[in-house]
Automatic annotation (TrEMBL):
InterPro entries: BlaI_family, WH-like_DNA-bd_sf, WH_DNA-bd_sf. It comes from the Bacteria. GO terms for biological process: negative regulation of DNA-templated transcription. It comes from Hyphomonas atlantica. GO terms for molecular function: DNA binding. Gene3D superfamilies: Winged helix-like DNA-binding domain superfamily/Winged helix DNA-binding domain (1.10.10.10). This is BlaI/MecI/CopY family transcriptional regulator.
Length: 127
């Protein structure tokens, strides 16, 4: 699976934190910081829906969107990519580095550690 770009990640972070939201709610929360017009926000959401990263649902005549990918697994993939592909790091990766993040609970940090380092073990088994 490809990784979300920074714009997509901003939308996902908002949806993970707030649950289902209309495109207008996403835009009001994320758009100004990105310098987006409402049409840009809708385009980003539509592309994310095509990728299967958000789902669409009609609730009382309003279209709302929900994150369809797991927060911890997505962040784990981004961490792995940064450490392995960008920084060329080897060995176990300490998920504790993210302990101060307001986006992750203690349980999610444990899960992140397992995701990051389990994937590394799987890659070593294939080598």
């Amino acid at each position: 699976m490809s990784q979300p770009n920074p714009s997509e990640l901003n939308v996902l972070k908002h949806l993970w934190a707030h649950g289902r939201q209309s495109a207008r709610e996403v835009h009001d929360a994320v758009g100004p910081g990105q310098g987006w017009k409402p049409s840009t926000t809708r385009t980003v959401i539509a592309r994310m829906e095509e990728k299967g990263w958000v789902t669409r649902q009609d609730v009382h005549g309003i279209t709302v969107f929900t994150a369809a990918i797991d927060r911890t697994a997505t962040l784990g993939g981004l961490v792995r990519h940064l450490a392995r592909q960008v920084l060329d790091m080897d060995g176990p990766l300490p998920a504790a580095l993210f302990a101060e993040s307001p986006h992750l609970s203690d349980a999610e940090l444990d899960e992140l550690d397992a995701i990051i380092n389990a994937a590394e073990g799987e890659q070593e088994d294939k080598a």
